[in-house]
Amino acid sequence: MSLEPQSRAQRKLIAAARLSAAHLPPALPPAWFVTDPARTPDPAAIASGLPAGFGVIYRHFGAADREGVAQTLAWICARRGLAFLVAADPALAANVGADGVHWPFRLRHEARRWQTRFALQTVSAHSGRELQRAAGLPVDAVLLSTVFASRSASAGTAMGALRFRQLVRDAGLTVYALGGVTPENAGAIAGTAGFAAVDGMAGFRPEIRT
After folding, report:
1. What is the tens place of the pLDDT at every residue in 83-96?
2. CA 171, CA 55: separation in Å to the nearest integer?
3. Which of 43, 60, 116, 150 is the most buried (most CB within 10 A)?
4. Is 111 helix (H, G, I), strand (E, B) or coil?
5. What is the pTM assigned to this prediction?
6. Number of domains making up the chain
């Protein structure tokens, strides 16, 4: 039994991820699915269709069902060979056996406290200045936004692929593009960095062939 991409859009993301993998440490996935309670209300369905080697960042924003959702995602990720991070909640990450924690920039210093507890830690950055400030943190990668125009309510002005690539080259860090990443534009940054997406991963569904 195997899982196959269902669409041209999925094949584009997988091709971009293969390019990204060449610029990332082997322990890191080339692409992250970032959950959002409003925009991806069924994250388990998407996680179940992700290609092996991708990763999931679970953001619960205090949802009442976070423990159950995290447990389900942890099980799917372990079964499917996906990296799994819980955002801003190290206790929940530890409880469900996640690989680590993703930190918002405002909580970036928490990474020092938890650096020996988890295999992976990432942090958000929203500008070149924040990217530079992340350089001294004990994290494995930085998710830099906003790269492309995004419908997220918190998204800033898109910096574009060219500016993103310049920032990555200057930073000397492992970076993922976040914000408006889609199958159509992921290739524009895949030659420099990894990528992370919310809506851009929403088309993944498992297609089972026996």
Report:
1. 999 999 999 999 99
2. 23
3. 43
4. helix
5. 0.93
6. 1
Q: Is residue 51 predicted with pLDDT exceeding 50?
A: yes
The number of residues making up the chain comes to: 210
**Residue at 129: amino acid letter:** R
DSSP assigned state of 190: H
Peptide bond into 182 cis (omega under 30): no
Q: Which is nearest to 12 in space by CA: 185, 208, 193?
A: 185
Q: Nearest 5°: phi and psi at 79? A: -70, -35
Range of the domain at 59: 2-209
Residues sharing a CB contact under 8 Å with residue 58, sequence separation 6 or more, in sequence order? 35, 43, 69, 70, 73, 84, 85, 86, 87, 98
